[in-house]
């Protein structure tokens, strides 16, 4: 029986996630085909603990995506400097552009992404005099680790910020947006501005969506939620981007595509409403990942970062 679970489970991320490249993501909007949902409905009733724990572990175990060479599409970004940080014994790797001492903008990628995913922002930010840093999150890209979550990612951002000094802005996508929100809202992080692209809402919603996508029955969903609650050491209702952002007083920009099939646009709207000083900008036809390559989105984010500069620094 357990061997059958493993065989079927191996197919779940590709059919349930709706992510590019068929990878698993922590929020699932597309439903798996009915044979997969039917299987999990049955096995979830017979072995709710096993199936619930397996699903929970999948939600904190990203699949590493190979480099796509996107950096070569940004010829004006200049030569990147390799950046290696030791954060609590975990080695994080990334890249750094621009003169040290200029206002730093930190780029935070999404689930199963890489530092290069936001590389289209690098050139425009450099032209406005910023220093730009993009790191691979724990268990992503070239950074060490096998499992990670929003809290872990947020602590990594805190470690990076300690190395860089006061951040000017954070530009973050998907789970990176959630981690940036936790860093600023719960970990006493500092930045002048925050740009969130396709941010998720809260973990309780995520578990329900994943359960619906793969057909988990209520008993297995309860075990999934109990496992994650134990993992985080607090109720899942407290693991919420919307809750974290309420403590963030800096100017914020939230962009989310109406056709996002990974994280619903309603999550982005709710996050923007919860932020004390936020502007919400909807897009259409870009989905969850292409939004990072759209020229209008890049211009909006870069312009927002520039406007957050003190007047005395804008023309430097």
Describe this structure in words.
The protein is α/β, with parallel strands linked by helices and 316 residues long. The protein folds into two domains: 92 residues; 202 residues, Alpha/Beta hydrolase fold, catalytic domain (Rossmann fold), CATH 3.40.50.1820. The protein is 40% helix and 16% strand. The protein is globular, with a radius of gyration of 19 Å.
Q: Which strand-content bin applies to the residues?
A: 15-25%
Query: Residue ranges: pLDDT <50 for 5 or more in a row?
Result: 1-28
> Topology as H/E string?
HHHHEEEHEHEHEHHHEHEH
What would the principal axes of the Cα set say about the shape?
globular
Structural class: alpha/beta
Gap between N and C termini: 66 Å
CATH architecture of the largest domain: 3-Layer(aba) Sandwich
Highest CATH level, the class of the largest domain: Alpha Beta
The overall pLDDT average reads: 85
**What share of residues is helical?**
25-40%
**How many strand units?**
8
Give a brief outline of the structure.
The protein is of the alpha/beta class and 316 residues long.
């Amino acid at each position: 029986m357990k061997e059958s679970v493993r065989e079927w489970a191996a197919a779940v991320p590709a059919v349930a996630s709706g992510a590019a490249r068929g990878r698993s993501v922590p929020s699932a909007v597309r439903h798996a085909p009915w044979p997969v949902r039917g299987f999990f409905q049955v096995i979830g009733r017979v072995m709710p603990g096993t199936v619930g724990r397996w699903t929970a572990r999948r939600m904190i175990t990203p699949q590493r995506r190979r480099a796509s060479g996107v950096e070569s599409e940004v010829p004006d970004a200049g030569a990147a400097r390799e950046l290696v940080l030791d954060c609590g014994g975990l080695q994080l790797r990334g890249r750094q552009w621009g003169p040290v001492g200029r206002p730093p903008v930190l780029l935070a990628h999404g689930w199963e992404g890489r530092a290069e995913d936001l590389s289209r922002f690098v050139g425009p930010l450099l032209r406005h005099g910023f220093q730009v840093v993009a790191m691979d999150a724990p268990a992503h890209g070239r950074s060490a680790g096998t499992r990670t979550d929003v809290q872990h990612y947020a602590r990594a951002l805190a470690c990076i910020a300690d190395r860089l000094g006061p951040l000017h802005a954070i530009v973050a996508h998907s789970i990176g947006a959630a981690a940036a929100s936790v860093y600023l809202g719960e970990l006493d992080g500092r930045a002048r501005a925050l740009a969130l692209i396709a941010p998720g809402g809260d973990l309780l919603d995520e578990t329900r969506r994943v359960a619906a996508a793969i057909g988990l029955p209520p008993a297995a969903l309860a075990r999934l939620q109990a496992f994650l609650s134990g993992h985080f050491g607090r109720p899942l209702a407290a693991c919420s981007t919307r809750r974290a952002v309420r403590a963030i007083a800096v100017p914020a920009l939230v962009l989310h595509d109406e056709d996002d099939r990974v994280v619903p646009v309603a999550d982005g709207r709710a996050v923007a409403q919860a932020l004390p000083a936020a502007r919400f900008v909807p897009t259409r036809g870009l989905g969850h990942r292409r939004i990072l390559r759209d020229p209008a989105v890049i211009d909006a984010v870069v312009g927002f970062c520039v406007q957050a500069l003190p007047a005395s620094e804008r023309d430097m």
